[in-house]
Amino acid sequence: MPIKDQVKNFARKLVEDRPDAAALRALVRARRPAALHFRDDGIVPNNPKFPALLYRGAVKLTSRRFRPDVIIDTMFDANGWGRSWRDTVYDFVHYHSQIHEVMGVARGSARIECGGIKGRILSVRPGDVLVLPAGTGHRLIESSRDFLVVGAYPQDGTYDECTDTRERPDAIKRIAKVRKPKTDPVLGRGGPLLRAWRKERPRSRPGG
């Protein structure tokens, strides 16, 4: 998301009631994510090494004290994923060539296309968390009117937004240079992302 959205969210966090470490631990579920591999489809590069990860029901959002978006935002921040924003997902295909991205569903439901038109459409609901390695194409297909996600990024990397196929040659070079994050956005330093992204991905057919 643009810097202005991240600044707006930073100002919001200064005044909202956020869970402390103990409360946050009680709200996060240890989940093994599904790994989704996407190959370059000729339009969207996707990531040659790291799979997208989908954590189902990773966060308990039934707290009466803390809002769902606050819980997810606090979780990402506690695990070293910052520069957060809260909004919906763009409805056009785009990807980030210099940074990884995580999105947690705080409210509503949606169908999100990942990996480009030859990828997969994922149905997501509150508590789900989706980690997109640099280069992974994504867009919103449809959503409920109340759909809200919290997005964030690891400490290393620069936000950019790629939509033009003319950017592909340079974008592919940038994607290859994006380093693995130091922490899992859901479960921190011991989280499954670090194991799932430890080795290069196996060969797979386009889109799967």
Explain the layout of strands and helices.
Elements: H1 3-13, H2 21-27, E1 34-36, E2 52-55, H3 68-78, E3 81-87, E4 101-107, E5 110-114, E6 120-124, E7 129-132, E8 138-143, E9 148-154, H4 168-177, H5 193-196
Antiparallel strand pairs: 1-2, 2-7, 3-9, 4-7, 4-9, 5-6, 5-8
InterPro entries: RmlC-like_jellyroll, RmlC_Cupin_sf, UCP019307_cupin, YjiB-like
Region (Disordered): 181-208
Protein name: Cupin
Explain briefly what this protein structure is.
The chain is of the alpha+beta class. The protein has helices at 3-13, 21-27, 68-78, 168-177, 193-196; strands at residues 34-36, 52-55, 81-87, 101-107, 110-114, 120-124, 129-132, 138-143, 148-154.
Order of helices and strands: HHEEHEEEEEEEHH
Determine and state the CATH class. Mainly Beta
Distance between the termini: 27 Å
Output the strand order for the largest sheet. 1-2-7-4-9-3
Give descriptors for this structure.
208 residues, alpha+beta, Jelly Rolls, three-stranded antiparallel beta sheet, 9 strands, 23% strand, disordered C terminus
Please describe what this structure looks like.
By secondary structure, this protein is of the alpha+beta class. It is globular. The two termini are 27 Å apart. This is Cupin.
